[in-house]
Specification:
Number of strands: 10
Helix content: 25-40%
Largest sheet: 5 strands, parallel
CATH superfamily: Glycoside hydrolase/deacetylase
CATH topology: TIM Barrel
Shape: globular
Structural class: alpha/beta
Distance between the termini: 8 Å
Strand content: 5-15%
Radius of gyration: 18 Å
CATH architecture: Alpha-Beta Barrel
Length: 303
């Protein structure tokens, strides 16, 4: 694939994932698949505004008759459905190899059966990889992972948040992960036995994009929360990169009244009107300059 590209991706993390991160309880009446409503519709509209389709990373336990029908419709429109594991276990990378393969096989098989297309891509819960995860992905026929977020600022900010939760006596399911990701390549590569070092695997890693020499994280939340001057700097830095993998979460595209009450106060992006967030993200995509919008599967083929 010649020329500059951008892959617009969406992690369809639901209420359970956010409650487990923040160590809070969900109300009994919470709709667990609520991110498949308007947040997903807004992502589709965002991609269509950019003239193309995107990649959806789906947690298999959230695939119901209704959500499967939605995903099948999006596949017919050119969107890619990829795996985000079976149950979004943040500790998946640390499980025994057999447990890892079982989880990924279940996710692959559910998506293939219910959506009608075998997933070729994977994004790890919490961005955590390990050698056994890569081994399982290759055994199961996945062609790429898009799990590495090579950002020291993100890594240390996460450490501070988790430390704060411990001081408050709050149990978070999230975990710190390997410091090896801090020095991982910024552009697509084939890893070795170590997920964060170039090697000769068949599997391709599509790192989530970071910007400037500081490797500042570029996610939906970081873009909408950054001051305008910093946001311009981030986009200017990304515009110089051949391949950009933009990582959005459904939460980035949700209204506060579409999110469980126990979670709302922990998500600062929800303080901004969702239309403003959409406008900012759309402007950032346009600011990358002329480039082809691709799915992650299409990008992986070019590596």
């Amino acid at each position: 694939m010649n020329g500059a590209t951008v892959a617009i991706t969406l992690d369809l993390d639901g209420p359970r994932e956010y409650a487990s991160i923040h160590g809070v309880e969900l109300d009994a009446d919470v709709e667990l698949q609520q991110m498949y409503g308007r947040p997903l519709e807004r992502f589709v509209e965002l991609c269509q505004g950019a003239g193309a389709s995107g990649t959806l990373f789906v947690v298999a336990r959230d695939v119901t008759a209704q959500t499967a029908a939605t995903l099948r419709g999006l596949v017919a429109m050119g969107f890619e459905v990829a795996s985000h594991s079976s149950v979004h276990d943040y500790g998946l990378s640390r499980r025994p190899p057999t447990a890892i393969e079982t989880d990924l096989r279940r996710s692959r098989d559910i998506l293939e059966r219910e959506v009608g297309a075998r997933p070729v891509g994977f994004r790890a819960p919490g961005y955590h990889l390990s050698e056994p995860v890569l081994d399982a992905l290759e055994t199961l026929g996945f062609s790429y992972s898009s799990s590495v977020l090579p950002s020291p600022p993100y890594f240390f900010a996460k450490a501070a948040v988790l430390a704060g939760y411990r001081l408050l006596g709050r149990t978070s399911a999230s975990m710190q992960g390997s410091a090896g990701m801090l020095i991982a390549p910024r552009q697509p590569y084939r890893p070795g036995r170590n997920p964060y070092v170039k090697g000769t695997r068949h599997l391709v890693e599509l790192p989530i994009s970071v910007a400037t020499p500081l490797r500042l994280p570029v996610t939906g939340a970081s873009l909408v929360l950054a001051p305008r001057a910093l946001r311009r700097l981030l986009v200017s830095s990304l515009a110089k990169q051949k391949s950009v993998v933009l990582n959005l979460h459904a939460m980035d595209l949700a209204r506060a009244d579409e999110v469980p009450r126990s979670v709302v106060g922990h998500q600062p992006e929800l303080r901004l009107d969702v239309e403003k967030r959409l406008r900012i993200i759309g402007e950032c995509i346009n600011g990358l300059g002329p480039r082809t919008v691709v799915t992650c599967a299409q990008l992986a083929v070019s590596v």
